[in-house]
Design a protein that fits this description.
By secondary structure, this protein is α/β, with parallel strands linked by helices. The protein has seven domains: 187 residues, Rossmann fold; 68 residues, no CATH class; 204 residues, Rossmann fold; 113 residues, PAS domain (Beta-Lactamase); 66 residues; 97 residues, PAS domain (Beta-Lactamase); 133 residues, Beta-Lactamase (2-Layer Sandwich). Helix 9 crosses helix 10.
Length: 982
């Protein structure tokens, strides 16, 4: 599901862009690429803006240089200049350039927030101002400037280009754009212009009116087929999106592949599955930014978070839900604002922020919390230093912020929502949904929020479809508070969302059909009024649902409470026949006709009563249509029969007959009245019973609603647990990799290392420690004192306690139980948060070095004692020809000090005179075969005597079983001795 992702400020994406504007970004090596581009771009009614990384202290000749390569007019951008087609606008030095309402806006670099990224700054403004009419082009340069801007343009429906890295002098910027997936095309500069002309021509062709022969229904069927493919592949029903949004993205993909007809594009998708993935990503518009609309976040801090921090006071976590979170910038921004408020208030509250989105790739990016360095443009330097860490050329969100967020995949319109939220932030999601889906989403948020919880919407969204659910807190920043009203039952029926919107029919066809339908309806109503019989529609309870025609002559309501019971409002003459006819129609479900004699204004007439059974098509309830047909005109009641007397009086037999008839009629009326009263009494009892049943039904309905609410809460809790479980599984995978790395490190370390907890119990050890101390897995958890028998007299427990107490590091050389020397080091064990959680005990084998030191000390004492009387230079060497001892004669002869001689290689002392290869070979043979040599003559330069011939000899001197030394003597040659004696 899309979130606050699109950078388009215009909600109506179907509107035709005012002008196609191409932003071109370049840096090092960009001049050559710009020249090649403009030399090949055709003049086709587009505007171009060139932004290059220029020195702020030097005048730029870029305008003049580009003017030589194109026939379009090239000018330096100035404040307030309106963009015109076939013009090239070049950024001036020491300024950042943006476009607002079709005009250029220049700002000093210091006014731009965070690091200076002028290409991103321009591209984002183009995406906001021109939407699908924006084009981004990244040419040669270093760094990643332009990558985020290309993503914004692509999200707005525009087109993006990156120079082919193989043709760029510096490929940093093009490679960054390509690796992020933000570039639609990868071309040499000369071919980009040709592709721009094709896109411009394709847009004009697609936007031109469709021929009358092109049926709208066919396009509708093709869209339904495309939506079915997406629904089957990804489970997301795009028929609930606004058609303008879907149209723009489909048109964009068709232009990229040079396809003109929708049915051809669907065939292309069926043949290339990867294209369906790309279209779905375009439809999701997975782009957002940190701290978008800074005023909105400041309003959140002052009007929402400040009160929440005071109310919670650390007792309960602050819960926030960010549906449609895209790559997580919005959720992280809210977490940072919460952290700032908590620090300002001096409160320590726990936060639970849930970010959900239908795009799994975006969720993975959000979980890593790793973003390009160019996101620094969206925040202040203080926030960047406080909440981010630098990692190569990227910024990673600090662990403290990341730990408070949980990200998971969720379809807002299909999956169960979260519950008990203090804030729901859903910015610029509703503008992409149809009205029915918008209403349902607002009801979902109302259910998810706590009493008094807040809802944050985008700048172009309101709760206009659900004003009874939310009260405005800050209209400007679209912050609302949940009202304490019952949330209407949710539904996902197609009737609520509406079917896929039909494209408008041709104007001629629409105008022709609409008057025909209106005229037919008017004629039907007129015929019913003139020739149709009056009547009423009643339900099974004989309550009137509808009056038809003039029914006044047939109804005479009785005094008392108002009612629509047809038996109580009908004239008394109809009671018997009406009841009889309705009962017969109910029992047999057939049309029933009956004649009724009525009296009106002293005259009588015959009325035919017609009862017709019906069925309500919506509720499927049985109804009856009662029609009244007047058959004859009223006549006088008294008719002369037989003859009359002189005074026109009836004859006695006739008078008696009339009296009997009147008496019989009175009895019948009395009987009928009694029957009616009994009927009414029965109906009252039935009504009372019905009310009781209805009350019970309402109680059952209430119980059912409570169970439904409990079910929804359980679903919400289950969804939340699923989300947390997914996050925990992700962290478990990270921990598994980290554990594997730690295991390999511990296995590869040669030193014996034992990790001890604060309770002085063994937690982990290296393979070397396992071999040295003969440890087994069961020893984990044992006290560190378990190792003291091996360490000799060392009290390891006291040393560990001292280190963990004062955070110091202890170093000591010890002789272990195996009679070998070890360097013991005890250091604190610190977490990444610099908290002490134990100690590290490390043993390094120094036995060879220690014994070599002892041997050197012993050999020196021996040689000084027994060889001190010899008057010519003597040197003792080890098997590596390293000097172990030298007598004073040697040091004075060659003017060396003991410190610079002992421990040095023989070949490196003095003027490196003893580096003779033949001498080295002879000395090696002494150690290899124990053969001595003498009288080896070589020339040596003595500091005070000049060059002299010297005789060298050497033999073995046993020092110990493990070590053998050689004693080398140096004497003047015979000729030199003779000369000295003379």
């Amino acid at each position: 599901m899309v979130e606050e992702r699109s950078t388009i400020s215009n909600d109506d994406e179907s509107a035709e862009p005012r002008l196609l504007v191409a932003g071109i970004g370049a840096s090092a090596g960009g001049l050559e690429a710009l020249g090649e581009f403009f030399a090949n771009v055709p003049i086709d009614g587009m505007a171009f803006i060139v932004v290059q990384h220029l020195s702020p202290d030097r005048e730029s000749n870029l305008t003049q240089l580009l003017g030589r390569t194109t026939r379009m007019r090239v000018v330096t951008a100035e404040e307030g200049t309106s963009l015109e087609p076939d013009h090239v606008y070049v950024i001036p030095p020491n300024a950042d350039l943006a476009v607002t309402r079709g005009a250029i806006h220049l700002v000093p670099p210091s006014a731009a927030r965070g690091a200076r990224l002028p290409i991103d700054y321009l591209f984002r403004s183009l995406a906001r101002d021109f939407g699908a009419g924006a084009i981004g082009i990244v040419l040669s340069g270093t760094g990643s400037d332009g990558t985020l801007g290309l993503q914004a343009i692509k999200a707005g429906g525009g087109f993006t280009f990156a120079q082919d890295p193989s043709t760029a002098k510096y490929d940093g910027m093009p490679r960054s754009a390509l690796s992020s997936g933000a570039a639609d095309f990868c071309l040499p500069p000369g071919k980009i212009g040709v592709e721009l002309a094709r896109i411009a021509h394709g847009r004009r062709r697609v936007r031109s009116p469709a021929p009358e022969s092109d049926p709208v229904s066919s396009t509708h069927e093709q869209l339904e087929k495309l939506f079915a493919l997406i629904r089957a592949a990804f489970g997301n029903d795009l028929s609930q999106y606004k058609l303008a949004t879907v149209d723009r993205r489909i048109e964009r993909r068709m232009l990229l592949h040079k396809i003109e007809r929708l049915d051809e594009y669907i065939r292309y998708i069926e043949e290339h599955r990867g294209e369906l993935d790309e279209l779905y990503k375009d439809l999701l518009i997975s782009v957002t930014s940190f701290f978008r609309d800074p005023d909105c976040f400041e309003a959140l801090k002052t009007k929402v978070f400040a009160d929440l921090v005071e109310q919670k006071d650390g007792s309960r976590p602050i819960r926030v839900w960010v549906p449609g979170c895209a790559t997580g910038e919005e959720a992280y921004s809210i977490a940072m604002c919460l952290a700032e408020v908590c620090e300002e208030k001096g409160r320590d509250t726990s936060d639970q922020i849930f970010g959900t989105d239908v795009d799994d790739d975006a969720i993975q990016i959000a979980r890593r919390g790793l973003y390009p360095a160019s996101v620094a443009l969206d925040m202040s330097p203080e926030r960047r230093e406080r909440f981010f860490a630098k990692r190569d050329d990227e910024l990673v969100v600090s662990r403290r912020i990341r730990d408070s967020l949980v990200f998971s995949k969720q379809n807002l319109l299909k999956d169960a929502p979260f519950s008990r939220m203090d804030l729901v932030s859903c910015r610029n999601l509703l503008i992409y949904l149809q009205p029915g889906a918008q209403k349902r989403v607002l009801r979902i948020f109302h259910y998810a929020l706590n009493a008094g919880g807040h809802l944050l919407l985008g700048a172009s969204e309101t709760v206009g479809d659900a004003p009874a659910l939310y009260a405005p807190v800050d209209r400007k920043n679209r912050i609302y508070r949940r009202k304490q009203v019952a949330t209407p039952a949710s539904t996902s029926s197609d009737a609520e969302f509406g079917a896929l919107p039909q494209r408008e029919l041709a104007k001629g066809a629409a105008s022709a059909s609409r008057p025909t339908l209106n005229l037919q309806g008017l004629a039907d109503r007129r015929v019913l009024e003139l020739y149709g019989p009056p009547g009423v529609v009643v339900n099974e309870n004989l309550e009137i649902l509808q009056f038809r025609g003039r029914t006044g002559p047939y109804f005479d309501p009785q005094p008392g409470n108002a009612t629509l019971d047809v038996l109580r409002v009908a004239r008394s003459e109809f009671h018997v026949e009406l009841k009889k006819a309705i009962q017969e129609a109910v029992d047999q479900n057939v049309r029933v006709t009956s004649d009724v004699q009525i009296r009106e204004h002293g005259k009588s007439g015959l009325v035919t009563l017609d009862v017709v059974p019906l069925q309500d098509p919506q509720s499927k309830a049985r109804c009856f249509l009662l029609l009244f047909h007047r058959e004859h005109a009223p006549t006088d009641i008294v008719t002369v029969v037989g003859g009359t007397g002189p005074d026109d009086e009836p004859s006695p037999p006739l008078a008696q007959l009339v009296q009997e008839l009147e008496r019989e009629l009175a009895l019948t009326k009395e009987y009928l009245q009694s029957t009616i009263e009994e009927r009414e009494h029965t109906l009252d009892e039935l009504k009372s019973t019905n009310e009781e049943l209805q009350s019970s039904n309402e109680e059952l309905q209430s119980t059912n609603e409570e169970l439904q609410t409990s079910k929804e809460e359980m679903e919400s809790t289950n969804e939340e647990l699923t989300t947390v479980n997914e996050e925990l599984q992700n962290r478990m995978r990270e921990l598994s990799v980290t554990n594997d790395d730690l295991h390999n490190v511990l296995s590869g370390v040669d030193n014996a290392v034992v990790i001890v907890g604060m309770d002085q119990r063994i937690r982990r050890y290296t393979t070397a420690a396992e071999k040295l101390f003969h440890l087994v897995p069961g020893d984990i958890g044992r006290s560190i004192g378990f190792l003291e028998p091996f360490l000799g007299t060392v009290s390891i427990e006291s040393k560990v306690a001292a280190v963990t107490a004062d955070l110091s590091t202890l170093d000591e050389d010890i002789v272990a139980a195996n009679q070998r020397w070890y360097a013991l080091r005890v250091s604190p064990y610190k977490t990444l948060d610099h908290a002490v959680r134990g100690a590290l005990v490390t043993l390094t084998d120094i036995d060879v070095r220690k014994r070599a030191q002892e041997m050197t000390r012993d050999v020196g004492s021996y040689a000084s004692k027994f060889l001190g009387a010899i008057g010519h230079p003597l040197v003792m060497l080890d098997s590596h020809l390293r000097i172990v001892w030298a007598n004073d004669v040697f040091l004075s002869t060659f003017q060396l000090s003991s410190d610079e001689t002992v421990g040095s290689m023989l070949s490196s002392i003095g003027a490196r005179q003893f580096g003779d290869a033949s001498l080295r070979k002879r000395l090696d043979s002494v150690f290899e075969s124990a053969a001595l040599f003498r009288g080896y003559e070589m020339k040596l330069r003595l500091p005070e005597q000049g060059e002299r011939s010297m005789q060298v000899g050497a033999s073995l001197v046993p020092a110990s079983r493990e070590n053998v030394l050689a004693l080398m003597s140096i004497e003047p040659a015979f000729a030199d001795r003779k000369r000295d004696g003379a």
